[in-house]
Amino acid sequence: MPATVYRGVGARVAYQRRLAALTQAQLATAADIALGTLRKIERDERGASDAVLDALADALGIDTADLLPGQDRPDDRVHQAMPALSTVIATYDTPDDGPVRPLHQLQTAVKDVVGWRLAAQYVRITRHVPALLPELSRALHTAPPGERAAIAALLVSAYRAADAVAYKYGARDLSARLIDLMRWAAPQAENPLLDATVAYVRTETFFAARAHDAGLRTLERAMGDAPSSTTTAALAARSALHMRAAVIAGRAGQHAAAETHLDEARALGDRVPEGVYGGTAVGPDSVRIHEVSLAVSLGDAHTGRALDLAREWQPPADLPAERRSGFYIELARAQLWAGQADHAFESLKVARRIAPQHTREHRWVREDAATLRRLKRADAETLNNFAAWCRAGE
User: Fold this and answer.
1) For 1-72, which CATH superfamily applies?
2) Mean pLDDT of the chain
3) Which residues neighbour 191 within 8 Å (Cβ) at sequence distance 6 or greater?
4) Which of 123, 196, 253, 321 could form a disulfide with 237 if both were Cys (CB 3.0 to 4.6 A apart)?
5) Confidence band, pLDDT 50/70/90 cuts, at residue 71
6) Mean pLDDT of 365-375
7) In the chain, what are the domain boundaries?
8) 261 — alpha (psi -120 to 50), left (phi > 0) or beta?
9) Gap between the Cα atoms of 314 and 350, Å rounded
10) Which one-letter DSSP state was computed for residue 33?
């Protein structure tokens, strides 16, 4: 995508810098930009490019979207990127000619993209993935035999990052095409654990179609095909499949199957340190979050289970932002069902602080904010502002 220069970001940059208790010189050094450049940006004497905004956000430890000017909503930037993304995947097997970086540089680029996905920084993904995907396709077509498997694995991870954007922003057809490309590339990586990852992601298509029974059957087949070894990676892959199977079984109304899969996920998750395996967060804390997801999937009669867990435990700060924000979004729904409107709104605000782009684009957030606006009278201005921010009722 062509570089964009944002005007009017100075006040936001200065505000976030003061929150971080940094001087201009300290922020300029941390972001690796000239002090004079930062001063001009804060005075709105010059704009900031995508790269500069990313560098400033990294130095401040915040989401780039927090620095965007008011008229440049994050979802606008993402939706503008969708046509370019569609073009890229339409030519997946016949990429344009162009440069290809060495394998180690491609690995670094994909690692960055995976990190942005886990942090729910979708704007960053859309800035980089439309150029990265064709480069990876060129690399796969021209790679020596010894590098093909590694590049295919990178391509799967990049497709998954693009799919996260498409799925979260409602481009369901585009998401399904990206998942098909993941299924095409995964066998070339010659890694059965990657096949399990693709099966995990493919469940999105069944959620979107409300084909929960079919999704559960597909996941259970993937469990049978997954490596049965006791390596940490294999245990994590099977735990991830069971976590997702528990939730989709709950939505299918198969309560016994849901509990069985959650028990299996917990038993396997307890055997691995909490971490990211194959691009998916797995471990005891992730299983606890899925326990809340299952309770919400089973319906409002099971809200007590979610509320009890939330009273005893909260997701630690080192879990990926997307997963932590998802916990509070699901908790808010349980609290709303239980008649705890104030607590539900607080949970939505926590989700927003953790991962604003993920929270803003979540359908349940819009539905619950609209419901809260109908129910509440106190703190109406704050609630109305939140509802407008997430486009409640759309």
Assistant:
1) lambda repressor-like DNA-binding domains (1.10.260.40)
2) 91
3) 149, 153
4) 196
5) very low
6) 91
7) 1-72, 74-189, 191-298
8) alpha
9) 12
10) -
